[in-house]
Amino acid sequence: MKRGFGFAMFAAGAMALSTLAAHADSAPSPQDFTKRLMGRAPGKGKTFACFTRAYDEAHLAGHPLQNVRAMKLLVKIDSEAGDGYDLVIGVNFRSRKSMFETEGDCAAPHAEGESGAPAPAGPASVHCAIACDGGAIDVALKDNGSVLLTIPNGARVWKPGSIDPDENVHGAFGEDDKLFRLDRASLSQCEPLGADKSEKATLAKGQ
């Protein structure tokens, strides 16, 4: 009995170690995280990725506390501006006709053992902050075709192109606007989120 029990414990331990090793091997490195997020290895200059989601009436009826009707996410990496990310999010809310935007600067993921590493298994997400205490956003990989975007405490949004602080909106995100799955889309779908004519033209071409 004791010998059988010991063998069973050994087998269970070996299986646990095997599971941990497999999990560690599957954790993306910072470079792999970026490549998977962007859909390709970033090149010189600006590299873009676009993700979108629109909710139908049936979904909204089943989630009365969700204010978001549709969302676009534009991820930008500029090789000349450091190793971080820039997020621009366009949001359509139930009670507002115009699309609103918010933007965050994201720290680059760190490898295991580096300062700021989010988890021993490697980076699983990037953390982004909206200026002037406007909120925080996390972006995690779900698979090669989608991401999970988390807005735990809401975020400040504004009308595109507005410089009037009175047009900044707080509290637009509802109680059920915490986590969104967005799917990879053509860059042209994020063209409205381009910062200037040059970016908009690039996005419109899908490049």
Please describe what this structure looks like.
- The chain is an alpha+beta fold and 207 residues long.
- The protein has one domain.
- Helices cover 23% and strands 30% of the residues.
- The protein has four helices and eight strands; from the N terminus they run H-H-E-H-E-E-E-E-E-E-E-H.
- The protein has helices at residues 2-26, 30-38, 57-62, 197-204; strands at residues 46-54, 68-78, 85-93, 100-106, 125-130, 135-143, 146-150, 179-185.
- It has an eight-stranded antiparallel β-barrel.
- Residues 1-25 and 112-123 have low confidence and may be disordered.
**By helix and strand content, what is the structural category?**
alpha+beta
Number of domains as seen in the coordinates: 1
What is the count of β-strands?
8
Instruction: Count helical runs.
Output: 4
Structure described in brief:
This protein has 207 residues and is α+β, with helices and mostly antiparallel strands. The protein is built from four helices and eight strands, in the order H-H-E-H-E-E-E-E-E-E-E-H. It has an eight-stranded antiparallel barrel.
